[in-house]
Amino acid sequence: GQSLEQPSEVTAVEGAIVQINCTYQTSGFYGLSWYQQHDGGAPTFLSYNALDGLEETGRFSSFLSRSDSYGYLLLQELQMKDSASYFCAVRDRGSQGNLIFGKGTKLSVKP
Amino acid sequence: GAVVSQHPSWVICKSGTSVKIECRSLDFQATTMFWYRQFPKQSLMLMATSNEGSKATYEQGVEKDKFLINHASLTLSTLTVTSAHPEDSSFYICSARKQTGQATIYGYTFGSGTRLTVV
Predict the structure, then answer these.
(1) Residue of A95, A96, A103 to mutate when probing chain B, most B C-beta within 10 A
(2) What is the pLDDT at residue B107?
(3) How far, in Å, CA of B104 to CA of B114, rounded?
(4) CB distance B43–A102 less than 8 Å?
(5) How many angstroms separate the CA atoms of A31 and B73, rounded?
(6) Confidence class for position A57, pLDDT limits 50, 70, 90
(7) Is the N or the C terminus of chain B less surrounded, counting Cβ atoms within 10 Å?
(8) What residues contact residue B51 under an 8 Å CB cut-off, 6+ apart?
(9) Which of A39, A55, A57, A99 to mutate to test the interface with B (most CBs of B within 10 A)?
């Protein structure tokens, strides 16, 4: 089967940098993506890596190492509004192509 | 952009009644939509894959007679929770994938979710 592991909780202060790691086990790989979900809200797409390396989108960056089955989401210049849950996800190898999510990392940003 | 509209955003119903949740792709056609369920402080778990014009594909452990899915058009999928019970209380989220020229993971758009409370 396919599975993703990520830390359950991370705490940081405003202005800091935080890294959320994700390791995955998949049969077939179609890229690693990251989603943000605020309490009571739906997931919103943040970033996607299909190839090794770093993808930067403003304050958020995502990294992938396919040889290590590992990726991370880097959040810089943390703001209070970044407090949310962050999920890494991979696409199911089945033809339907649904996403399989990690269990999520709850980020708490403190003043 | 790709927008998915989901209604209602929240619903409270009595035990034993049925609730219908709608998921619409507003500016694109979605031959496939996905229905997820999320319990508090947990991840999103796929319930079923909805295919336009054909039967839905359910994940193991999901009762197809309890969670009825209808994908009657390229822009609308509905999930009906029949004979709801308190244990069905959860956050239900639909997702649709806009087909692009590249077979990438881009294009997964989520509805805003439906908070179902069964009392």
Answers:
(1) A96
(2) 60
(3) 27
(4) yes
(5) 29
(6) confident
(7) N
(8) A96, B31, B32, B57, B71
(9) A99
